[in-house]
Amino acid sequence: MGLFKKVPFGLDISDLSIQVMQLSNKRKIISSNYIDIDSGIIENGKVLNADLLVEALNTCVGASKPKPIKTREVIASLPDSQLFAQVCVVREPADSKNFQAALEQEVRADMPLDLDDLYADYQIFYPGTDKQEVLFVAAPKELVNSYHETLVASGLKPVALDMESGCLGRCLLEDDFGGDNSVLIVDIGARNTIIGIFIPEGLYFSTDVTVAGNEFSRKIADKLKIKFGQAEKLKIKFGVAEKNDRQGVGKIIKEALEPIAKEIEEVIEYNKYKLGKAPKKIFVVGGASAMTGLIEYLKERLGVDVSLGDTKKRPMSTVYGLALRGIAKDPRTDGINLLPNA
Ligand SMILES: Nc1ncnc2c1ncn2[C@@H]1O[C@H](COP(=O)(O)OP(=O)(O)OP(=O)(O)O)[C@@H](O)[C@H]1O
Ligand SMILES: [Mg+2]
């Protein structure tokens, strides 16, 4: 048995949806739910209407299936777009008194905000070796406090606040890496695409692009002079396969995909530079990963091994990653935790 009587559940809050999931110790889904929420409750990861969010959270947890989740302990994610993450070199041994000071000095130079306004956590890779590096992650106190207060107001007990991109790494299995290789996960959602480099020890680097599913539909709507809702339907119907696609929907989406493809290429270069070789493969997840023809197109466009991450057989979503943290020996310390005083 783990630290808690009942396994904490995972909660993924995004601008337009809430997902919950609880797993058994054997990684089987015990209960889950997904609800859409109105725009204006959360925008760009910031809570704008806490009362409506509390209501939506209670609805989502209360209606989770097949049996509603009764556990109060929760592991939630914070939106990557609001976090600062940086890999830095700190030679100081992790257990020395000077470690914290050396780390702060290292990150201060690149940090756009005052460290006093942030909650931070870090993870050390290859500790004590000459490859030692530190992943430093920080979140504005205001953001963390608003999530914390909302969860508490919903009658929940936050155990950990993780970073969205880090959660996905937990869904990876040992043989995805095949030794000491790295793997990329590209999460194409509604507003944001997150690209993360994972090494067997966890998340190594992540970046995000503000182009995703909504932007594809917006471009289709603009070019074909139709409503957003219609464009959304065409996007889902045709994708980028260009089969029977007389209006050229696929071509429009491919153009809209370019900033994502270019960013992936840059991340691959960064991966080569920092880790000495190209990533072994790329998994694409998120709602827009279901787009017809996308995986084949990215394979051809990038010339690397690309596959669909989130399938029924192989769950790989943020909420599944959060739920997996729930079955860790100590979910509080199993990865980045931005909850104050955790
Ligand atoms: N079959 C499909 N084909 C194309 N796009 C799809 C399909 N199914 C869902 N989408 C798109 O996926 C997007 C939603 O993805 P997801 O649920 O991962 O977003 P989110 O996590 O709420 O958003 P974000 O991560 O940006 O905050 C929408 O733009 C939707 O149109
Ligand atoms: Mg998402």
Note the topology:
Layout: E1 9-13, E2 17-23, E3 29-36, E4 42-43, E5 46-47, H1 50-62, E6 73-78, E7 84-88, H2 99-108, E8 118-125, E9 133-140, H3 141-153, E10 157-163, H4 164-169, H5 174-177, E11 183-188, E12 193-199, E13 202-209, H6 213-224, H7 228-238, H8 249-275, E14 281-285, H9 294-302, E15 306-308, H10 318-326
Parallel strand pairs: 1-6, 6-10, 11-14, 14-15
Antiparallel strand pairs: 1-2, 2-3, 4-5, 7-9, 8-9, 11-12, 12-13
Helix pairs in contact: 1-3, 6-7, 6-8
Bound molecules: adenosine-5'-triphosphate and magnesium ion.
Helix vs. strand class:
alpha/beta
Strand content: 25-35%
Whole-number radius of gyration?
A: 20 Å
CATH architectural type of the largest domain: 2-Layer Sandwich
> How many helical stretches?
10
Bound molecules: adenosine-5'-triphosphate, magnesium ion
What does this structure look like?
By secondary structure, the protein is an alpha/beta fold. It folds into 3 domains: 9-81 and 141-169 and 316-326, ATPase, nucleotide binding domain (Nucleotidyltransferase, domain 5, 2-Layer Sandwich); 82-139; 174-308, ATPase, nucleotide binding domain (Nucleotidyltransferase, domain 5, 2-Layer Sandwich), CATH 3.30.420.40. The chain contains 10 helices and 15 strands. It has helices at residues 50-62, 99-108, 141-153, 164-169, 174-177, 213-224, 228-238, 249-275, 294-302, 318-326, and strands at residues 9-13, 17-23, 29-36, 42-43, 46-47, 73-78, 84-88, 118-125, 133-140, 157-163, 183-188, 193-199, 202-209, 281-285, 306-308. A 5-stranded mixed beta sheet has the order 3-2-1-6-10, sandwiched between helices. It has a 5-stranded mixed beta sheet with strand order 13-12-11-14-15. Strand 4 and strand 5 form a beta hairpin. The two termini are 20 Å apart.
